[in-house]
Automatic annotation (TrEMBL):
Keywords, ordered alphabetically: Cytoplasm, Initiation factor, Protein biosynthesis, RNA-binding
Organism: Rhynchospora pubera
Domain of life: Eukaryota
SUPFAM superfamilies reported for this sequence: RNA-binding domain, RBD
Family stated for the protein in its record: Belongs to the eIF-3 subunit G family.
Protein name stated in the entry: Eukaryotic translation initiation factor 3 subunit G
Presence of keyword Protein biosynthesis: yes
Region (Disordered): 165-213
DNA sequence: AATGAGCGA
């Protein structure tokens, strides 16, 4: 660095990036200027320039390039073919060739818990008689009843199939998605649970339920709940799947639980899948012992 | 080898 500065004091004014220049760079003024010819009618451009090579010898460099004519982009055969397709969709009403790209007007409906602008939970006080102030948040997550009892005290909590008499409880999956925010419980339907129909009466619940609970261990670390569901649903309606996740790492802990609506299905699943090779590992499938609360 | 999270007065 010091040597450079003493030899060529003006280099001190250069920024570090400019110092990266080839040493000969400073002597460029000794070279003839660059000459560019063309491009001619064929798009051929010739450039003649001079530089110093690494040994300090003057070298003449001529470059010939073909310049693509403006607006004459190369189009692949396939693309040309596509241009001859008959117009379809919204483009059938367009003049041929007027536009190659159409803006889609297709409506895509997104499911969301509550559409913006709609009101939240109906007020607790409506029609429920006297409600303790401060009890507004007391909504049973099992039956949806407000201001009456906590989930843990729900009279229906042990019922596999909640009675149809539940207040404000949509009885079908369709009703659940058609009335976002209106029901007493979350209207969100996980993707794997959407599209009701077949599943009537076997509603998957996030709620813990120890009925017909099957413990699955020796799961590979990338087995997720949908995978478990796929595997076990062939035995009958599954009310819940759970894969234990390490809260710190977010990784599977290698075990999970599957709850069946019917005990016989659980039993068949255990008999069939215990010792079953899945994702390079041998599954262990057994009855789960209920966890103490 | 291994037994789940959330959701509160």
């Amino acid at each position: 660095m010091a040597a450079v500065e003493s030899a060529r004091p003006q280099a001190a004014k250069l920024r570090w990036g400019e110092l990266e220049e080839d040493d000969a760079g400073d002597l460029d003024f000794l070279l003839p200027p660059r000459v560019v010819e063309g491009p001619d009618e064929n798009g051929i451009k010739k450039t003649t320039e001079y530089r110093f090579d690494e040994d300090g010898n003057k070298v003449k460099v001529t470059t010939t390039t073909r310049v693509r004519k403006l607006g004459k982009a190369r189009v692949s055969k396939k693309a040309k073919e596509r241009r001859n397709w008959a117009k379809f969709g919204d483009a059938v009403h367009e003049d041929v060739g007027s536009r190659l790209t159409m803006v889609s007007t297709e409506e895509i409906l997104l499911e969301r818990p509550r559409a913006p602008g709609t009101k939240e939970e109906p007020s607790v006080s409506e029609g429920l008689g006297p409600v303790q102030p401060g009890a507004v948040l007391m909504v049973c997550r099992t039956c949806g009843k407000k201001g009456d009892h906590w989930t843990s005290k729900c009279p229906y909590k042990d019922l596999a199939q909640p009675p149809e008499t539940f207040v404000e409880r949509p009885s079908t999956a369709d009703a659940a998605s058609a009335a976002p925010g209106g029901a007493g419980r979350s209207a969100y339907v996980p993707p794997s649970m959407r599209g009701g129909g077949e599943r009537t009466g076997t509603e998957m619940s996030r709620r813990r339920n120890d009925e017909n609970s099957v413990r699955v261990t020796n799961l590979s670390e990338d087995t997720r709940e949908p995978d478990l569901l796929e595997l076990f649903r062939t035995f009958g309606p599954v009310s819940r799947v759970y894969v234990a996740i390490d809260q710190k790492t977010g990784m599977s802990r290698g075990f999970g639980f599957v709850n069946f609506v019917h005990r016989e299905d659980a039993e068949r699943a255990i008999n069939k899948l215990n010792g079953y090779g899945y994702d390079n590992l041998i599954l262990r499938v057994e009855w789960a012992t209920p966890r103490p609360n």
